[in-house]
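INTERNAL AUDIT FORM
Audit reference: QA-55
Scope: verify that the stored structure record matches its stored sequence.
Auditor: D.O.
Record contents follow.
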Amino acid sequence: MDKRSAHVWSRNSLVKPRVVAILLLVFISGCASGTMFETTRPVIGTSYGVQMAALSPQDAARVRNACPFGQPSIQRAQDYGQTYVVARDGYVLEEDAADRIPIWVCESVTKYQVTGPLTGGRISFKADPLLPSDARSVDADYKNEPYDRGHNAPLADQSRDQRLRDETFFLSNVAPQDKVLNEQAWAELEKHVRDWAISRDSVHVITGSFFWDSTEDDPTTAKGFVHYKRIGKDNVSVPTHFYKIVTARRTDNSDWDVIAFVMPNQPIKRGVDFTKYIQPVSWIEKRTGVSFFPDLPLAKRRALESVKASSFWPAQ
């Protein structure tokens, strides 16, 4: 067993304002052991959030490898309560203790690691031993629920080291994802990322999920909250959207390329036109309250965050 412990990030000891005044129970699953309900949460805004804990030297090195532009930073303390940073050799993530899903997962994906001989060998999902019991999900939370256990850092990104493959099955690396989306369109997007890792030698990927309603972008329809669901005995939050941000050196090594996708947590089939789901990184930052490239100089960061078209696409 991994003897390291997760790093706690106490957002100024604020309690996350998850459920507004009245909790509306709108749906209960008919399955014996599954419960699912819909509730609301405040819409995330933007400003600066203070980090309250330091990483160990070993885990700091893992963060530098997985997040070359800096560990993603929550911009406003009140948007998130207690979170935990878990650093492994295959990925680094920040887990939301209230939602029991990752806010972001960083990984460096290389040509070498995606072209190895290991295939299959799926194992059971399991609770993350680096997280306390009151901040993690368990496999039973997903039982009899209409969602897949959606990997953030995919199994197929690891084809050289069985330990790294196995570690993708910790539930800290998982969020409830629509079954069709997970097995079709999202799987296809993950395959594009691996193809880019092969053609570019390596790519850096940030994957996560968030809660958003398009009516909140219009001041005439915005209400300040978004409906979402929770499942299982631990009330695991079901995100409304997933994102994936990919960066890599340009083929002439002159600069960095970036491309970002946002897909609703809905049944989207394979063969979809992915250009419909491309968004600038700044669009995702506004709706997650997370700064994804905090260590870059301001001008460079803004340039990368504003990119929508990219030489990544069309997919090779």
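Auditor finding: record pair retrieved intact. The radius of gyration is 19 Å.
Action required: none
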